[in-house]
Design goal:
Blueprint (H helix, E strand, L loop, with lengths): L1 H13 L3 H12 L2 H9 L2 H4 L2 H26 L3 E11 L2 E9 L7 E10 L3 E8 L3 E2 H26 L1
Antiparallel strand pairs: 1-2, 2-3, 3-4, 4-5
Helix pairs in contact: 1-2, 2-5, 3-5, 3-6, 5-6
Organism: Anaplasma phagocytophilum str. CRT53-1
Protein name: Toluene tolerance, Ttg2 family protein
Pfam families: MlaC
Length: about 160
């Protein structure tokens, strides 16, 4: 987590192709296949291979943009690792506190859920001990699929 934080801060400070560089950092640490499958929820079983592949591709691009925007916003915040817990079966929870650089009492607590595969990948982030980004995204994706169908959702996230 410290390495990722330092990398993000350097990218933002250098301000050279920030979005592209942050996108590469996000690509390396997020578990896109797991995030895509989880976000699609019950519809994953209904989707054929083409739909799964296309959804994973467009949703990965979408979620990467979301995370890049957030990383850029919080790049100057101080970060302190509060705890690391093993959840079992190669899964860990890393809790960090991000502190606003000018207002020390203005902070946010994030809990990164990390899965150990060939490398460590982030599978979820919880905000202030409650809001799960993955669950929030799943709700949003399910609403889009209910409204437009699977192919419509693919088109929606392609835009």
């Amino acid at each position: 987590m410290e390495e990722l934080k330092t990398r993000v801060r350097v990218i933002v400070l250098e301000d050279k192709a920030v979005r592209e560089s942050l996108g590469q950092a996000v690509q390396e640490v997020l578990d896109f296949p797991r995030l895509s499958k989880f976000a699609m929820g019950q519809y994953w079983k209904d989707a054929d291979m083409r739909q799964r592949d296309e959804f994973q591709d467009v949703y990965s691009q979408y979620i990467k943009k979301v995370y890049v925007t957030q990383l850029k916003e919080f790049a100057h915040h101080g970060m302190k690792i509060l705890s690391v817990r093993e959840l079992g079966e190669g899964k860990y929870a890393v809790r960090v506190r991000l502190t606003h650089p000018e207002h020390r009492d203005d902070f946010i607590v994030l809990e990164f859920h990390i899965v150990e595969a060939s490398t460590l990948k982030i599978s979820d982030i919880r905000i202030n001990n409650s809001l799960s980004i993955s669950v929030n995204q799943r709700t949003m994706v399910n609403e889009v699929i209910q409204k437009y169908g699977i192919d419509g959702a693919i088109s929606h996230f392609r835009q």
